[in-house]
Amino acid sequence: MLLTFCLRLFKLVVVNLVDSYALTLPSLYISTLLLSLRSMLQLDLPHINVLTKIDNLNKYPPLSFNLDFYTEVQDLAYLIPSLEAESPMFGQGKFAALNEAIVNLVEEFGLVGYETLAVEDKKSMMSLLHTIDKAGGYAFGKAEGANDSVWQVAVREGIGKMDVRDVQERWVDRRDEWDEIEREEEQERRRQEWEEGMQRGEEMDLDGDGEMDVPPLPPGGSGVKVVRRKKKTDEAEPS
């Protein structure tokens, strides 16, 4: 009775966290698919599968396919040659038939899919939170949608969804470039905060070291001209 009351009071969502390292080996990825599918069938709750530590993918061997192949879980037959290349045993006799049966099983159910998460990336975290809210039947809507029902808000197209192609570009294809862009944006944000604080008569700690900082000078100097006074040479020397 208590459990039934709790289920009615709270919206529960299962979040299955999978380390993105599972994408680097075909056999490990297929095992992950089977585990995710079993969990979805056994647990009678809304279910979200998440590939975590997506920001570490550039530290692993290159993936055989783009990221969307692994998140959308479609056309798994293309994975079989990579599986056989991983180990000659997987391409022989009963193992070859078993591999084909497994990928067909996962595709026929059509239930498994994956979200991505880079826990230190605010956009990635917010996207996952919106996806979880949507799975539980609740999501934040825009101000103009305040009179919508919970269901209308939850199914609103595009809410909280982060395109996997953007994730591919940010964390796999061009990670170093995006890291530099975000560093520059963070420096500019801190500089603006400092300038606004100075206008309000506040001191700002730009680098978080506990000491009040002075922002770097703008190009061309500070704009303040310094004039040095010349010594008087016509004054009488002391005797």
Describe, in plain words, how this protein is organized in 3D:
- There is one protein chain.
- The chain has 239 residues and is mainly alpha-helical.
- It has helices spanning 2-9, 26-42, 67-72, 80-86, 93-109, 122-135, 150-154, 164-173, 175-199; strands at residues 14-19, 47-52, 115-116.
- A three-stranded parallel β-sheet has the order 1-2-3, with helices on both faces.
- Strand 1 (14-19), helix 2 and strand 2 (47-52) form a beta-alpha-beta unit.
- Helix 2 packs across helix 5 (93-109).
- The chain starts with a helix and ends in a 40-residue tail after the last helix.
Write the layout of secondary structure elements.
Elements: H1 2-9, E1 14-19, H2 26-42, E2 47-52, H3 67-72, H4 80-86, H5 93-109, E3 115-116, H6 122-135, H7 150-154, H8 164-173, H9 175-199
Parallel strand pairs: 1-2, 2-3
Helix pairs in contact: 2-5
- What is the approximate shape? flat
SS content category: mainly alpha
> What percent of residues are in strands?
5-15%
The radius of gyration computed from the alpha-carbon positions, rounded to a whole number of angstroms, is 28 Å
The major pleated sheet works out as: 3 strands, parallel
Query: What's the total number of strands?
Result: 3
Secondary-structure element order, N to C:
HEHEHHHEHHHH
What's the quaternary structure here? single chain
Mean pLDDT: 77
Termini gap: 107 Å
How are the strands ordered across the major sheet?
1-2-3
